[in-house]
Design goal:
- By secondary structure, the chain is of the alpha/beta class.
- The protein is about 45% helix and about 15% strand.
- The mean pLDDT is about 90.
Length: about 325
């Protein structure tokens, strides 16, 4: 491990290795056993976690109620348990993904125009800005999308707290047709990729700070959403595709679900344009997530008016044409 990796993580060498060794043991164990057995063991682990992890359990239930997705406490608890089970399966799949994945078996459904222009398995597809979410198995979206639709892909990742663990996880994501850029300073690399005709993928469903995002509405509640996909779209004109990699059933079986392509003509009011486009893909992801909401990561603190202190709405940009 390099000294630069140690400095980036902010952890001592001892702590990095003390975290990595149990991870490595679990990684080797999962890769060495049958998928059904691995799923079963991971489900049992997450059943225990659901019981003892009060903070994330409570938060998931609160968020399901706050969003209106769950209509009562009992329904919220049931949906929170199902969300935990989805992540129990995802953990196994991260460890075994290269042993399991068959990109050509992942079907695509959703908006017909999007499929016709960007999702033809025979190729000749337009490149796009994929805006996706921590949903189903998002780890599949990179390499599998690139291999299915014959366009190289570049995605963005947040640096891992433990660089040794990060190296293993990133290794399972990347392929000859897909590579990742660290989130910090990624805009230039993403712009270059789009101008070279590549597709890019960005996770845009989590809370953004005031420097990285703009205030939008998600499931009827205020949140702050990353606006980099909007900036890239406005800069290049490359269309945005809202996309989820949705789990089908209880095994390693998935489908790409795509929404309507977003193509926006700038008005000249930059702030308003960024806000409008960001809200467009936020609403599109909401629509897709609502079809099967238990596959989304409900434990994340997404909203500004829940568990974040006093909320004051951000001033909205003025539309000069509306005056």
């Amino acid at each position: 491990m390099s000294e630069s990796s140690k400095k980036q993580s902010g952890k001592s060498k001892f702590r990095i290795w003390s975290e990595f060794i149990p991870f490595w043991c679990l990684y080797k164990a999962m890769r060495g056993i049958n998928l059904k057995v691995a799923y079963y063991l991971s489900r049992q682990l997450f059943k225990v976690l659901y019981l003892i992890d009060k903070r994330h359990r409570t938060r998931s239930i609160q968020h399901l109620l706050h969003s209106g997705v769950a209509h009562n406490q009992a329904e919220a608890k049931d949906m929170a348990r199902k969300a935990y089970m989805n992540f129990s399966m995802l953990l196994v799949e991260i460890f075994k993904i290269d042993q399991l994945v068959e990109p050509d078996k992942i079907n695509v459904l959703g908006n017909p125009e999007t499929i016709a222009l960007a999702c033809k398995k025979e190729g000749n597809n337009t490149n796009a800005i994929i805006v996706t979410a921590h949903y189903g198995n998002w780890e599949l979206a990179g390499s599998c999308w690139a291999q299915n639709f014959k366009i190289p892909m570049v995605s963005v990742f947040r640096r891992f707290g433990n660089p040794l663990i990060g190296k293993y996880i990133l290794g399972s994501r990347e392929s000859e047709s897909h590579y990742s850029l660290p989130k910090d300073g990624s805009i230039k690399g993403l712009l270059k990729a789009l101008r070279e005709g590549k597709t890019i993928a960005i996770l845009a469903d989590q809370h953004a700070n005031s420097k990285e995002g703009v205030e939008t509405t998600f499931f009827g509640q205020p949140c702050r959403t990353h606006c980099s996909p909007a900036l890239l779209h406005l800069k290049t004109g490359v269309p945005i595709i809202p996309e989820l990699t949705r789990r089908c059933g209880n095994g390693f079986d998935f489908e790409f679900v795509v929404g309507e392509m977003i193509r926006y003509t700038p008005t000249g009011n930059k702030d308003l344009d960024i806000l409008t486009v960001t809200q467009m893909y936020t609403s599109a992801l909401e629509k897709l997530i609502s079809e099967e909401p238990t596959q989304w990561m409900w434990a994340h603190r997404r909203w500004l008016n829940l568990n974040r202190g006093t909320y004051t709405p951000a001033p909205q940009p003025v539309d000069s044409l509306a005056k």
